[in-house]
């Protein structure tokens, strides 16, 4: 059988065949969610002159399990949750999702107006709005 | 095969899935429970099909840049994703349940009840 020759089988019985795994192992595919690969949630970073947005991929975490803190120019996003237990009546066929607590810190290029920081969580994506502190904005100088 | 179908099939051939969402599968109470991480995917952007013993879960993710902002650094992956599995036993696809929560899909597919057949041996 083709799958037997080239691909890894999912379990010892080989009952559940995973077509993509075969395809991806051959073509070095990438996972959608980098959390799986690096133990750190993936980040996106957007800027304009007023501040920045940070998006973070944290699927499987609920809002209350995510913590955001800002210390000077450092932004830390962390997630903590209880490990889900699998009851003894179930059989694990595939286990790729790593449900580990995480913490990721990035350094921002500017100081943030911490009172105006806002975060929303939707569909597994955390979006943090980071407006620049007034002191960081360019000052217009009046000519008398 | 109609023309539309042909075009569709060709599209499927050329548009290769780029990503595979990480997943878990457990078997429990005569059902298969498939969990897939797909942050940023709406229920509308997701397609799940069971064709006999082949289960396909596919969809697309796209960039959601905030208005008037410029992306300067990106680790997210965008594009088509797919997972395709061969299910070992006949399933009762009519009673499959799929739900999305916190960017994670949970799909429960019951195995067909008559998949387990007891054969009684008659003594003669």
Features:
heterodimer; A: 144 residues; mainly beta; Immunoglobulin-like; 2 domains; four-stranded antiparallel β-sheet; three-stranded antiparallel β-sheet; 36% strand; elongated; disordered N terminus; B: 124 residues; 9 strands; 10% helix; 44% strand
TL;DR?
Chain A has 144 residues and is mainly β. Chain A is 12% helix and 36% strand.
How does this model look, in words?
Helix content of chain A is 12%, strand content 36%. Chain A is built from three helices and ten strands. A four-stranded antiparallel β-sheet of chain A has the order 3-4-10-9, with no helix packed on it. In chain A, strands 5-6-8 form a three-stranded antiparallel β-sheet, with no helix packed on it. With 124 residues, chain B is mainly beta. Chain B has a single domain, classed as Immunoglobulin-like. Chain B is 10% helix and 44% strand. Chain B has one helix and nine strands, in the order H-E-E-E-E-E-E-E-E-E. The longest helix of chain B is centred in the first third of the chain and has 12 residues, at 3-14. Chains A and B meet through strand 1, helix 2, strand 2, strand 3 and strand 4 of A and strand 1, strand 2, strand 3, strand 6 and strand 7 of B. Strand 2 of chain A pairs parallel with strand 1 (19-20) of chain B, so a sheet runs across the interface.
Query: Structural class per helix/strand content of chain A?
Result: mainly beta
How do the SSEs of chain B run, as a string of H and E? HEEEEEEEEE
Beta-strand level of the residues of chain B, as a percent range? 35-45%
Largest interface: A-B, 52 and 49 residues
Count of separate DSSP helical elements of chain B? 1
Shape of chain B: elongated
CATH architecture descriptor name of the largest domain in chain A? Sandwich
Fraction of residues in helix of chain B: under 10%
Mean pLDDT of chain B: 83
Count of discrete structural domains of chain B: 1
